[in-house]
Amino acid sequence: MSSSLSSLLSSFQNLTVRMGATAVLRCEVLRASGAVQWVKDGLLLGPQRSLPGFPRYSMIGNPKKGQYHLQIERAELEDDAPYECQAGQSESSRAIISSEVWINVQIPPSKPYFEVDMTEPWVAGKKYTVTCIAPDAKPKAEVVLYKDGVELTGAESFTMSGSKDKLLNTHTEVTYYSLSATPLSLSLSPHPPFIEGLERDEVKAGRMLTLVCVSQGGNPLATLHWTKNGEVLSTSWDEDIEARRSRSVLYLHVTREDNQAVLCCESVNLVSLAPLSLSRKITVLFEPSEVVVLGSFRAIEGKELNLCCYTTSSNPPVQIRWWLGFRELNTTVVTMAEGDNGGMTTMSNMTHRVSREENGLPLTCEAFNKGTRFSKTQTTNLNIYYPPLKVWLEVPPPGVPLRSGSKVHLVCFSSGGNPTGTLTWLKDGKTVPEALRQVPFDKGVSRELVLILKPSDNMATYRCDARNEARKVLSAQTKLMVHFPAVSLKIISNQRELHRGQTISLECVSGSSNPKANISWSLGPFRLKGVDQAPRRAEFGGVSVRSTLSLTLASQHNNQRVICQAYSSLLAEGANTFYELNVLYPPEFSPEQPKQVQVVEDDMATIPLLVSANPAEVSCIWLHRREKLVKERDPRYHWIEDSSLEIMNVTRKDAGIYTVQCSNDEGTNHTSVSLDILYAPSVKAAKDPVHVNLGETADLICVADANPITSGMFTWKWLVRGEANMEKGEEVQDEESGLLTIHKVTRADAGRYQCTVNNGIAPSASVDVRLVVHFKPELQKGAQWRKVASRGDGTSSAEVLCQAEGVPRVDFSWAKNGLPIDFANPRYEERTVREGYFHTSTVTVVNVSAAMDYAVFTCTARNSLGEDTVDIQLVSTNHPDPPSSFRQVSVGHDSVTLEWLPGFDGGLQQQFRIRYRWARSDSFLYVDVFPPRATSFTVTGLSPVTTYNFSVNALNAMGESGYADNNAVLTITTEGQFDTESATGLPTYLIILLTAIFGVLLALNSLGWFLGLKRKRRWEMLWKNLHSPFRSSQSTVSNSNRYESREKVNAAAQRTLLIDSGSETDSNIYERYAGESSHYYYPTSDYWPPLHPLTEETHRLGEIKAQAVDYSNCCSCNLCPKYRNIFIILSSFFFFFFFFFFFFFFTIL
């Protein structure tokens, strides 16, 4: 055998498996070339791995290794069979078949049961036979009998066929001697059942049957169930233990579907080998469910009518009769056939020739059965068709010309016919779908056709056909004459490619027109002259004309249209068409191509390219400074779709001439564009700082770098304390330079000047130029600079300051009492500090001696422009000098702001106090200035439109000074306070309220006058008793205090009084008023309470130290007691006067 032949490698052996297990038959084929499949008991299973038709069968294993094992899952009895593995024949190998192998399926027995005679009671001592049956086993079952747990001997067994082939029932019998009359508890099969309530097999549909199934005997009693045609109807039953029977009742509603149905009652118990049953077939009598007439009740006059009357299944079958009106039709053929549910169907075919007179008569099919007394009919009226009688038209008169585009109405009429005719409009034999809907009228119909006339309507035949189901057509027709312009227009050219400078020949051909049209040519706004040809006959009964044109082409003609018009003067209408010129030409730049592009630096520059060419595929390159621009050279370059150049973040280096060269298949052209880069200015000073002598002319110059250079782009500001102040000097611009000229320079002109350049492109630029003015030294010579104080006891030091302003550098020299100071002496030290224009020289005198150092120190400051001298006196510490230049800063309705220059502080820290009063005040008010060293202060709490006298002096620890400016008094009148609420236009409720308030005030004033008079008398008596002791205290205070006892002072100073120790220049202290404390009070700079001047008038009875008040001199409301009564009378008069005045005033408003 050749090595390429197939061969079997597996050894095949029989296989035994239990039911439900998986069986695997192995088969391995070496070099399988044909199909490999299994054979079961002579049946081929197929070569597929899944084996269709055998869901539990499959071939497993690796086919590449020749493994074709048969696997059977959930083995059953039907799998017990012989199997073969076959390899099919192929071109290289013959067929091979394995040896036969068996699968032996072992099946356990079903539930065993006993058979024993239980019809009569058992007799003690008598022999009985008990049989145990183990059914449906493979192989046969082994049976062992036990009684009360003891194995019974002597049993004999034999086998019988089971319920299926290959299954065995094992019967085991044993002989038993009864020991008592009580039988064994054995299971017995019941007797076959019987049915009650079904006396006849024929039952009428719709009847309700009550059937009873009874089963006798059995242990246990039988279970019963009903079936109909094998389907379970009922599974309920009841048991009668005494009668030893089971009983099941079935209620059945009989329908036609129950005809020939088999009703079955089955009984079974645990020991029944098979269910016992009784079956009865019933015959159901039923009528047909419907009568159907098949065929059309419509017919054409004189034609035969063929109808079929059909009844559905019935039992027994019915008979059929036909009626037309009251006349029976006998031309029928009747057939019967088997129907549903065992019944019979009946069919009657009727033929009848109809006439026009039978239209509308009822045609009836009657189905009846005399035996069941059944009758049912189906009636429909006949519809007999006959053709219309007449057709006519309403149309324009023939031969009258109609214009194309106008609307024409064609109306078709038809009368008679059944049904009325259907009208159809046709044009030259073709249906016109645009006709309007058909409209009925008395004994006929009409249909209108609305035409918008077209050239094709000229001499066209319009026909109206009237037809109906009678299939006879009546017609009427007409013809129209239509005038129309050219139906088509086209331009023909034999030249495919057009080039600039070439001459093109065009021919315009007009389609049919009626009457003849005239052809004209135009190109844009220009008319062209063509050559006309002879006319020809054309479609729709019209004529066709044509004309030729020659044209020399230029690039401007590209994409332009040459228009041809065919015009009819009779119709005043024409047709137009155009021929679009596609002229090939090399690139040409638009007249609108910019020659210069301006862009702001750092923005994106776009140099547009306005070029046209045909063909449009243009290749362009850009050159800058004779170098080709490519993106690789500079990534900022970008070309958009139209070849325009974009430059990102342009700089001023990108400015210049850009040349673009463009070419296409027709040639090359180029142009140039200037790129102007605009950028924000930068500026620098031509010279900084600028030095100039006092009184000379100063020139400040700044130079800008900017594009564009605009007129007026330079502005100058004088910076004072870092902020722009007023403009100074004369400003001049010379191209990129800005000049500020200041004539006759003063010291005030010195400082920083800012030159700002703004050429319209943000941001603007600025530069500062410092102007330095040279001047000779000027020393500080105010009062505070001319004295220095020290104790002179040889233990303290003194600093003598000299401060000068001057440019250039200032040097100092010192003299004492006219003699230069020797700074080699350790008692004298000098140091100089320079800050800008200010130069300060300080001489420190160590261990000041009154005898040696109380002298005049002379300070001399000099530079190249001159010198200045000041004398400074070193004196002993003392009270301060008076302030000077006391003046008003501002005034309001309730406040005044004052300012002064401080005097020499006496060598100690000084503070200031303001004294003021008004004309009718009894004393001065004093306000301590906070912070103490401030030289301006606002006095608040003043009355409007009141004149005040103000003074200011200084105080230190050693005393106080005189008042400023030689005790000068500053007189100031406060402003008036304007009430913004007008008295006019007050609402009524406010008028009433004000009137009531005035009335209440008037009443209170009268009451106050009365009570005040009584109180005054009581106080006068009390005063007389207390007058003597207070008068001596008042005298003491008056002698020790230079201020009056009723003089008012600032309440914020804790009600302090200035106690004079002898003179104003002597030492002064603050003493707490009313003897509350004896310590001194010095206001500090950190504490700054609100300063509201208050009068010192706190008097309570029993305060022995209180300031004495002389009630004999006291005046109420600033009036003396003797005038009080007169004042009260006058005030009452004025209250009444103003009350009535305001009442009438507001009433009028």
UniProtKB/TrEMBL annotation:
Principal localisation: membrane
Record localization: Membrane
Gene Ontology BP term (one): cell-cell adhesion
UniProt keyword list: Disulfide bond, Glycoprotein, Immunoglobulin domain, Membrane, Repeat, Transmembrane, Transmembrane helix
Domain annotation Ig-like: ranges: 3-98, 192-283, 288-383, 387-475, 485-582, 587-676, 681-768, 777-873
Domain Fibronectin type-III span(s) in chain numbering: 882-976
CDD domains: FN3, Ig
InterPro entries named among the record's database cross-references: CD80_C2-set (IPR013162), Cell_adhesion_signaling (IPR051275), FN3_dom (IPR003961), FN3_sf (IPR036116), Ig-like_dom (IPR007110), Ig-like_dom_sf (IPR036179), Ig-like_fold (IPR013783), Ig_I-set (IPR013098)
Membrane topology of the entry: Single-pass type I membrane protein
Gene Ontology MF, one: cell adhesion molecule binding
Protein name in UniProt: NPHS1 adhesion molecule, nephrin
GO CC, any one term: plasma membrane
TM stretches of this protein: 989-1011, 1126-1148
